[in-house]
Amino acid sequence: MAERPNSTQAAAAQPGKKNNKKKKISRYSANRPEIIVTSCFFGLLFAAMIGYLGYFVATSEQEMVNNSYNSRQEILLSRNYRGAIYSRDGEVLAQTRLDEDQNESRVYPYGRLFAHAVGYSTKGRTGVESLANYYLINTNTSLANKAANDIAGIKNPGDNVYTTLDLDLQQVADSQLNIYKGAVVVTEVSTGKILAMVSHPDFDPNEIAQIWDSLMDDEDSSVLLNRVTQGQYPPGSTFKIVTALEYIRENPDTYNNYSYFCNGYFSSGTGRINCYHGTNHGQVGFESSFAKSCNSSFANIGVNLDQESFEETLDELLFNQELPIAFPYSGSKANVVEQVSMNELMQTSIGQGRTQISPIHLNMITSAIAGGGVLMKPYVVDRIENDAGRVVKSFQPSAYGSLMSEDEAEILKGLMESVVEDGTGRKLSGLSYTAAGKTGSAEYNDVKEDSHAWFTGFAPVEEPEICVTIIVEGAGSGGDYAVPIARRIFDAYFNGGT
Amino acid sequence: MREYITELSKYIIPALMAVYTLCSFACLADKLEKKSSIYVLQDVIMFFMQLLMFTDLALTSTGEKKGNSMEYIFFYVFVQIFLLAAAAMVPVIYEQVNRLLLNNMCMLLGTGLCVISRISFNQAVRQYIIVLLSLAVALFIPWILSQIHFLKKLTWVYGIAGIAMLAVVLLYSEVTYGAEISFTIGGVTFQPSEFVKIIFVFFLASALWEDASFIRVAVTAVFAGAHVVILVLSKDLGSALIFFVGYVFVVFAATRNYLYLLAGALGGSGAAWGAYKLFAHVRDRVITWRNPWTYIDNEGYSITQSLFAIGSGSWFGMGLLKGNPTAIPFVEKDFIFSSICEELGVIFGICIILITIVCFLEMMKMAALIKDRFYQLIVYGIGIMYIFQIFLTIGGGIKLIPLTGVTLPFISYGGSSVMTTMVMFFLIQGIYIRLQQGGGRRSGRKTKQHSGGSGAARKEEQ
Hints:
The complex is a heterodimer of chains A (498) and B (462). With 498 residues, chain A is an alpha+beta fold.
């Protein structure tokens, strides 16, 4: 009995509650779930679309503006004149001069010196003129200036580009390469900054309009080619760095027990590999094979390598891959797997045969070794400033990733040190700084024994600061022709003199 | 002075647009207080933005020696007259009109007229006349809806009329060997597929509102399929897709069966694959979508130019008259969104997308409120076709999906498109007003706040 009033109260209360709820729901009719599902579906679809649009703008703006099919470049150029390009120490490398009638002319004060690195901006664009085009033709000048220029009817100054290029090093590299064809690239190990970039033969960008037709008429001319990034050379003995790395990877504990007796050649099947100028190296170990650049010993190593694993190492070192650089480049080629004869494998392991590499790629590998395995992406544009010197944008060094382990880099460093201490790079020993590297004498002519002189290396060994890669076309051996150039560059960097 | 104004408006315009968009989203909420004052704020923003945009046009046109600044000033005055008429007069005529949809419609139309006048002044004038005409026609729709009661019964009339209209255009273009999807009478060009959209929604709603059995769905599928096939044969792939998606979703809503969505997705993919294999013009679209840069000189030209425009504009845009949108072929129709991104900026562009989503969500909310299944399906179907068309045109222009060549409703140049969309919006307004007056639901207290008054209710009492 006592429960009754309670239960009726509850019963009376509940219908009221239920009615309330019902009323709330009934504001929306049936079919609500379907409509909610539909709304969510299109809501997500549009969220994705907005996300895609935002991503596109955030990542592709420059690429879109720089495309030569984009007519908006002319629009920007009709409003702003091109900004200037500076070296890292503030020397003008390119600027637009205006005469009294506001006629523009692009001037390169150093003429040929930065022909490929800075490039030109008429007749197409190359070098920094191309890479930083977006910034050069946009302006971040003050609003007051814009308004004043608008009233005066003159163009706004485009933003200025500060590069990582070092005038002194560039001059040394250029004068040392002298009349030879070839390329020199100098980078900073800890950042990837390109300090010097020289390619010969060169041209004077001030005269590009006048020489253009003759350059175009001459189909064999490779004057416009930036050999640092676009040159494709047989790596020669510098490739032994790669072969050595693969051997270390396959024999991590026993590679130092390696020994070989060199008679001046190595043959297997129909193939035969000679040492440079037929030198007999006699009894060699792993390190001395590398230091003395014994072809026979490395051919012997090469034929016993695991081809699949070799292929992986090549991939990791960015052969047959895209390189993380902004300059237009020719990709490096190396093949150890598909349809490779024993002869070809021998050739490949000493950097001959069909293997090809660009100087910048070899520099990147060397720089990774110097930097404990980590490759810093090479870059040339340091920061953008407006006409008043306010920094609009600055570019930070960024790591591409590890090409090899720290231990492997350390071992290779040791091998490269031995090249300088008692190998083909002795001309770099006994100086105020320590250096390490690898020479190469890449034969490019089957008949004659002509060879390109290579050197790639870094200094100082203890705490590597700069990395230098040099190729001198058709000069002879790397030890005789490329190493002295490296020495002058190191001298200039560490001692400030030539 | 000129530079100060144009440079500052580069940032003020997107900022105003962002505030407007936020207001729109806020008004989606049911329980928001003081909605009517937000609507007034939106109108104020819209007029201020119009002032800034046309000031930009007038100032820059003298600076860049492009166009005639007096023309822009005159056109500005006319556009403002229209916007005032639409934003202020419609709520006087129909007190229970949905202000959110009305404001967004005005915002999109105003932006469209401004951008078209920048691309081609003559086209802008034509567009203006059509917009005015459309408004005049559309204003009668809510009244007509309240008078006519046999709309639900004309199912097969709608179906046959739609197919017939599409077929006539197809045959006409076959005879003249054209690939046109429109025909011209007395200097006025019609694109029937636009108007058929409305008839098609009526067909679907009337066919499925009381009986959504499998047989019924199958019969409507035959009619819907005929629409789609004719459109594909007319090479109007965009419209074909819009009709198809409209059909699938309306069937889904009518049957409440998710299997139809699945079947639609599968059938659609199969049909798309078939079309890809069968028709060269379908393959072209896909190839240029996958890799436009390879075909930049011919088939890929429009899409790459569209991407250039968006990329060059970046977040804040190059400023009105300071870009080069006319480099994109058919910019005033298919790529109007890219030209908006180029000169007014991607932030502004994203706001436009968000405003269209608000319109869609408001329509979905309305559909959920309507008890009468017929009207519910109409509102739902119009919403789907509207939002999907926006997805096609914007997604195509930014290379998210292959290009299909459809207009951006209310913004693109094109009389048939703007008139159809306006009729669709006023159909929804009419149904909304019915709903408010108790035609479909019992309590209208909450939503009466939308209209900013309860005049109609008072009238009924009298």
